[in-house]
Amino acid sequence: MAGIARSNKTFCEFFAGIGLVREGLAGSGWSCAYANDVDPKKQQLYEGRFGAEGHFHLGDVWNTPEVLARITGRPFLATASFPCVDLSLAGHGRGFEGSHSSTFFGFVQLLEALADRRPRVVLLENVSGFVTSSGGKDFEAAARSLADLGYWLDAFMLDAGWFLPQSRPRVFVVGVRDGLDRPLAARRSPSDWIADDWTRRIEAADRRVRPPKLVDRMKAIDLATGWTAFDVPVPRRKPPHVAELIDLGDDPSWWDAAAVTKHHDMMSDRHRERVDAMVESGETFVGTIYRRKRAGATRAEVRFDGVAGCLRTPRGGSGKQIVVAVDRGVLRMRWMSAREYARLQGAPTFPLAANTIQNLFGFGDAVCVPVIQWIDEHVLSPVFAGAHEDGDAESPRAERGRQPDARTAPQDHAGGEGQEHVA
Asked: Where is this region: Disordered (predicted)?
C-alpha cells in the first residue's frame, strides 16, 4: 500500500467561527481544505487572518449536497466546534432538542454522505455541560452516531487555564476510524463489563483530564465500535498572570470616576473590602470583573487570582468582562479590549475588525489556540504520523479488517451492573 503523502495532512473545519482551530493546527503542517460557518461577520474575521482563498463556505451544514460539492478528495481530519448554547446554562436545558446545538447532526449527516471519502479522524469540541446535558443522553447520542460511522472514540477535558490565564474548561471527543493505529481499546457493554487495560488507563489518568463524571458516562455507553484512550497529559508549565496580557497604559477607554464608583458599590462587602485594602496598600494589582445577578441584584464579582473569567459573547452587560486595576492607590476599570480577548485565546496578533463587538463575539465564541496545539501534539499529529508510516488503508473494507488492539467483551459473560473568586 502506498504511504500517505505529507501533502495529505488536510482537514475540514466545521463551525469554523473565526478560525482558531486552524490557527492551532497550522504550526504542525495541517492544511485547511474546507471551512464552514453561517456567520458572515465571523467569515470576515476568518478571511482577514487567512485570506479569501475560496475554501470558506458561508452556508448551512445541513445543506449536505452544497457542502459535498465543495469538499475535494478525502481529508484526513474533520473538526467540529458545534454550537454550545443549548448545552450550556444559557440554553435552559434544551440540549439536542434546541435548534443550535442539534446542528451537530448536520455534521454527522455530512460525514455519512462522504462515504469512502469520510475523514479518518474527527475532533469535537464543546462546553463541559455537553457531558451532562439531558441527563447524559445528548453525549450518548453524539457518541453513538460517530461510532455507527466506524469511529473508535476517546473523550477528555482540557482547560485553557492550564495554558493561558483564562478559565475555560472544554470537553473534546476524538474519533479514529478502524485501520488507524490507536492506543488501548475496548469494546464494552454495561451488561458485559470486564477489567481491561483501557479501564486501568482511564481510571489512572489525571482526574482533571478525565473527571469521574466523564469516565462514568463513557463506561455506561455501549458503542458499535468501542472506546480508546490516548495519553493526554496536563501541561507542567505555569500559565502567565493575567496582568501580563492587560494593557495598563493611559487610554481613553478607562472609565470615569462615576462609572468606577457605580461598580465599586455593586461589589459584595467582602469583595469591596478586599479592593479597598489593595488601594490603601499603594501597590499594583490587576484582576477582572463579571456582572452577575445575585438574589435579584446585580453584583460586580471581582477576581484577583491571576486568571480571567471564561470569555463569552457580549450578549447583554453580563457577557462582557471588565478589567479592574489598582495602580499605586488609584482604582481603575474599563471593558476588556478585543486585543486582550485575542491574547487570552492564544492569538495575540490576530487581525481585528473595526467593530469591537464583532471581535468580542468572534473570540468569545472560539476555542483557545494552545489547547488545540496540545491535542495536535499528543493525538492528531501522532495518529497521522502512524498512518503515514504504516501505509494508507483507503478503502472502508481495509479499515474494518484491521483491529489489532481491540478488546471484545465475552458474549457469554453474565455481568451485572456558580462561585465567587477573590485571591
From this structure: 387-423
